[in-house]
Amino acid sequence: NGFLRSGRKVNRVKYLWIDDVRPAPKGWIHLKTVEAAIDFISKHDDIAVISVDHDAGDYGPPDYIEVLKWMEARMYPAPPIRLHSMNVVGKMNMRAIIERNGWTEVF
User: Fold this and answer.
1) Percentages helix, strand, coil for the chain, rounded to the nearest 5?
2) Each residue's pLDDT tens digit in the chain (107 positions)?
3) Is 95 exposed, middle or buried (0-12, 13-18, 19+ CB in 10 A)?
4) What does pTM read for this prediction?
5) How far apart (Å, rounded) are the C-alpha atoms in residues 91 and 102?
6) HSE-up of 55 (CA within 13 Å, CB side)?
């Protein structure tokens, strides 16, 4: 039926693109709000990569770092994460969360 006992949907591997402005690469799921990203992540076990910006622009506040903070608070087993933000300080703060949790950053 496409669902695990946990209630999370599992079909094919998914690639998440969390950004307010930049278009998602072909085949990636584009999420523009923190709420949408958290909702999606909480319902899927088959995420291969999360590529995330820092600044949510018109879709914030909050900014997208809150997605990583949410995952950290729940000790979520994060898939590889790519930071595509141009915000140097925001990117450093996000990288600190990735490193603190032993998650994998991909480039």
Assistant:
1) 35, 20, 50
2) 344 445 555 556 899 999 999 999 999 999 999 999 999 999 998 999 999 999 999 988 999 999 999 999 999 999 999 999 999 999 999 999 999 999 999 99
3) middle
4) 0.87
5) 16
6) 9
| 29 φ, ψ (degrees, to nearest 5) | -90, 125
Structure tokens at 12: 């094919």
Could you give the residue ranges of the DSSP H alpha helices within the chain?
34-43, 65-73, 88-100
Q: Is 17 helix (H, G, I), strand (E, B) or coil?
A: strand
pLDDT of amino acid 23: 97
Amino acid at 54: H
Count how many residues are written for the chain: 107
Instruction: For strands 47-52 and 29-31, give the pairing.
Output: unpaired
